[in-house]
Amino acid sequence: RMAAPVIAASLTTMAAFGPILLVGDVIGQILSALPMVVIAVLIASLIECFLVLPGHLSHALPKERKAPGWFRRNFDAGFAFFRDKMFGWLSDLTYRWRYATLAAAIALGIVGGALIPAGKLGFEFFPSVEGETVNVTAIFQPGVPQDAMYGLVEQVEKAIETVETDLTPEGEDLILTSFAYLDMENGRANIALYLTAAELRSVRTNQIGRAIRENIPTIAGVDRISVREPRGGPPGRAIDVEFSGAEVPVLKAASEELQAVLEGFEGVQAISDTLAYGKPELVLELTPRGRALGFSLDTLGSQIRDTFEGNLARRVAEEEEEIAVRVEQVSDASGTAALRDLWVRSDAGNFVPLSEVVTISERQGFNRIVREEGKTVVSVRADTDTTIVAAADVLERLEADYLPGITSKYGVQYSLGGTQAEQSAAFGDLRLGGLIALGVMYIIIAWIFGSYFAPLAVMLIIPFGVIGAIWGHFIMGYSLSIISMMGLLGLAGILVNDSIVLVSRLQERLEEGDSLREAATGAARDRLRAVVLTSLTTIGGLTPLLFETSLQAKFLIPMAITIVFGLGLATLLVLFLVPAIIGIGADIGAFFSWLFVRKNAPSFRGLIRGDHHSIPRPPEVEA
Q1: Where would I find the beta strands (DSSP E) of 255-374?
Q2: Is the backbone of residue 534 left (phi > 0), alpha (psi -120 to 50) or beta?
Q3: pLDDT tens for residues 532-570?
């Protein structure tokens, strides 16, 4: 008897969770286990439900039913009174005033939807887990001696010790260990602090980072010091603006101007770009005389490299070893003097001083140049303190007030990367997955009920579950996130389960000869216990997650909020709104039947059954 609705309910839930597998990048990797576990569990539950549970019940239930006990008799009597009198009266009332019922539900949705544009409910792309490290990075100006670099590390470590002394509560440990790395070649120092587990300390990681930032003194010879508190989750930075379409010096100038702009935003920190300065470089430019003598930069470059690095003349095999013979030039001069005193050979075999065929100039070089798809790109990156400012607000200001001027001034193009790019890609995948999920659910429900209209009546409850999720985030004080959006997919599959059970019973009552009004309100009464139990068990299973204090579970709480509150509100609406929607559908069908094809148009009863033959207009529908 329950095979069709139970199978349909399981298939629609699988269809709802399955599209999460379409989400790519790191977000998809984090959550890909969820749909696979749900689908596997549902398949196992179907097997257990139809093949294992009946056998267990045949052994567990007594052969002769005993008289129920005092508690059972009173509970059943109380529930029957509530179902038939109180709930039955309310169900009949909401069906009779079905348009008012629908209007009240829509009004609740409008008010809930208004929370977002009104600023009462924010959006955070990914509720990342608090990190347990703090990184301090210092970039030195060219020419800073090594002793000064060592001195900086010592000053930063003293500032960290001061912060630890001031912030650490009695009986707690804040910093487990620290590790310093000094890159002499590229003029960079990095100090990594490893903190105790987030659950074991009362001082948050961003507080530690902020205190270190405030205590680091201004140090001569340091171009920039940044303090970062990496968080768990997608690797993208909160702010990531990528410049391209110009020469490297121009891109660097645009990057520096944008960094100066970002420094004016409160709460924006750890500002840097991917084009860091490196060692000073000597630039050679060919003179007209050198060009006339047949020199080119390629031939000059080869001779200069051979002079200073040597030229591999030949390889000699000696027993089981191979010996490389390299020819090098010995010079008493060093540094740039050795380059300026160098003589080079022309194609004609003449030797001339290098300074006669090239001009030598000095400029600041770059540590690393990044190219993507053949184009040189520079990315300006920064983090935000979410307690002060949201990254989305900063990016909105940049695109409105600053980026157009910078791009026109330097003739470059920009694009947004980092979290913004990940967000666009994830929402694109979710949009496609949502459409696929809704389409598959419609096909499954239409196949089960043999009707084109029944799936619409069943699935119209989904938007009201979304409203419940919005109210849940508002009540619990959480922002909406990509995890909430994925929870909505799962919620859609769970919501239609109650509707399927209800509509299935409605069909049975119609086939037994009930009027549409009797079938709709009677089906709500008949399935009250099943609907409430289905929802309460799901809500009860997820409720402990709502109050989980572990910071590692924080990113899962929005999904639990979505399902718990969405299912809680939608359960009430299923019992009252679905019968009302069915009645409204009957009204519309009867109206068009009366208006256009009075004798041949099917009524809603025929539509809900999948029967498209001529059926009289339902008697309860007034002209």
Answers
A1: 268-273, 277-286, 311-318, 321-327, 343-345, 351-353, 358-366, 370-372
A2: alpha
A3: 888 888 888 888 888 877 766 777 788 888 888 888 888
Strand partners, 323: 316
Q: How far apart are CA 525 and CA 91, in angstroms?
A: 8
Whole-angstrom distance, CA of residue 272 vs CA of residue 241: 11
The conformation of residue 187, written as its DSSP 8-state character, comes to: T
Residue pointed to by tokens 């920064």: 382
Residue 213 and residue 355 in contact, taking contact as beta carbons nearer than 8 Å: no
In 10 A of CB 362, how many CB atoms? Answer: 10
Query: What residues are paired with 136 via a beta bridge?
Result: 191, 227
Kindly state the DSSP code that residue 319 receives in the 8-state scheme. T
Residue 613 has pLDDT above 60, yes or no: no
Distance CA 73, CA 65 (A): 14
* Four-CA torsion 283, 289, 291, 295, nearest 10 degrees: -70
Contact 144, 221 (CB under 8 A): yes
Q: Write the DSSP symbol of residue 548.
A: -
Among 560, 551, 557, smallest CA distance to 494 is for 560
**C-alpha to C-alpha distance for 384 and 207, rounded to whole angstroms:** 13
Look-up: residue for tokens 């990044």? 370
Distance CA 303, CA 354 (A): 10
Q: Predicted confidence band at 94 (pLDDT cuts at 50, 70, 90)?
A: confident
What is the SS3 string spanning 416-447? Answer: ECHHHHHHHHHHHHHHHHHHHHHHHHHHHHHH
Tens-place pLDDT, residues 123-177: 777 766 677 788 888 877 777 777 777 777 788 888 888 888 888 877 777 788 8
Counting beta carbons within 10 angstroms of the beta carbon of residue 397, is it exposed (0 to 12), middle (13 to 18) or buried (19 or more)? middle
Provide the pLDDT confidence category of residue 598 given band limits of 50, 70 and 90: low
> Which of 172-201 are b and which e, b meaning 16 or more Cβ less than 10 Å from the residue's Cβ?
eebbeebeeebeeeebbbebebebeebeeb
Nearest to 560 by CA among 584, 539, 590: 539
CA 77 to CA 68: how far, in whole Å?
Answer: 12
